[in-house]
Amino acid sequence: MPAPTAIELLWGTQQRPKRGPKPALSLERIVAEAIALADAEGLANLSMQRLAERLGFTKMSLYRYVPGKAELVALMLDAALGAPPAMAAAGAMSAEEPWRGQLGSWCETLYQRFREHPWSLEVSVGVRPIGPNEMGWMESALGALAGTGLTNAERLDTIVLLTGHARSLVQQVRVMDDEAFEKQIAGQFADLVAAAAERYPESAAAFAEEGAAAGGEGALKFGIGRVLDGLAVLIARRR
């Protein structure tokens, strides 16, 4: 029997034995342990051999469930992304048009998933197999914009914009996950800017303002708001 492809593994279309003793391993356990390893040590340190050692099995045992690292990474990404946020609940809490609250929650949740699993940034680009969870993220965002008058291409482009915003901020803040280190660097930078205020007056004034250095969360919400503001203008024109 040929080894299952990434698509077959992601969508559960490969044939599995229906009888016999319950296997000691499972694909779900392998993927969960692989995610834990990548979260802790980075994707570069993930290998089938190291994963097998963590699970207490031989490397050959893993190949009964997943044919290689490429297929494993595809499964890891879909599991790490998980399900998208409940869009109906997000919209119901907003006094604005539902799609604004829904897409805001969508982008903020995606940002958090990327932050929890930084390795997902490097494997979620390019032509690759797409799993059911990732397809669910696309479906929910497209559904939030249904009935707005935007074309299908414009709705897809909106997803690209919001995803790019979340990705870029995670890439900027991922080195600042150590809170103590972040405060130390921020303090040193503030002192540097203040001391060089005559040379960089606009920068000094900007960073002196309260809340100016709010970090990734502040920039995330600001960027989402501006993207959705522009979208609202386009939607109003169509109507």
Task: Break the fold down into its secondary structure elements and pairings.
Elements: H1 6-11, H2 27-41, H3 48-55, H4 59-62, H5 69-81, H6 87-92, H7 98-116, H8 120-123, H9 132-144, H10 152-173, H11 179-195, H12 201-208, H13 216-238
Name the descriptors:
13 helices; 239 residues; 66% helix; 0% strand; mainly alpha
The number of helical elements comes to: 13
Determine the structural class based on helices, strands and strand pairing.
Answer: mainly alpha
Which percent bin holds the helix content? 55-70%
Shape: flat
Q: Radius of gyration, Cα only, in angstroms?
A: 22 Å
Strand runs, count: 0
Beginning-to-end CA distance, first to last residue:
56 Å
Mean residue pLDDT: 86
The portion of residues forming beta strands comes to: under 5%
By oligomeric state, this entry counts as single chain
Which series of helices and strands comes N to C? HHHHHHHHHHHHH
Low-confidence stretches: 90-94
Largest sheet report: none
What does this structure look like?
The chain is mostly helical and 239 residues long. Helix 2 crosses helix 5, helix 7 (98-116) packs antiparallel against helix 9 (132-144) and helix 7 (98-116) runs antiparallel to helix 13. The protein has helices at 6-11, 27-41, 48-55, 59-62, 69-81, 87-92, 98-116, 120-123, 132-144, 152-173, 179-195, 201-208, 216-238. It starts with 5 loop residues before the first helix and ends with a helix.
